[in-house]
Known about the structure:
Elements: H1 6-19, H2 26-33, H3 37-49, E1 53-56, E2 62-65, H4 74-80, H5 99-125, H6 128-143
Antiparallel strand pairs: 1-2
Helix pairs in contact: 2-3, 4-5
Amino acid sequence: MRGDSRLSRMLHVLIHLGRRKQAATSEMIAKMLNTNPVVVRRTMAGLRERGYVQSEKGHGGGWTLSKGLNEITLLDVYEALERPELFCLVSASDHPGCLVELAVNEALEDARRDAEALLLSRFATLRLSDIATNFDNRLSMLNLGHDLPGFDA
């Protein structure tokens, strides 16, 4: 099963939008994400419907934030993307009448549900401004000449 990177990608886009003074076109965002502008417009539509971004057509148009980064949580973005699958763990269905398989599937599903609830409750506490602050701190460290863990100059 292939992973879904829409949440990560849209968080990336929204933080960039929060840093820009001018609108970003779908083409600019598509280039950043290495995708098609149609995909960007389709994905951003859910964020626009929820009031997190707005778009203007024509010369000088593009996407801008409608709310501040401190007003948007990870949970907000996750829900605007129609709640993509968080885990790719799937139950076996090779032997639907096997009581062992049923017990295993039930245990796995219970654990997955608990993990998802915990993750979503954490998403609700994280604001995009928290991520942007993390970026600012990393940038500051680089500007001061400090090496960041995992960063190869």
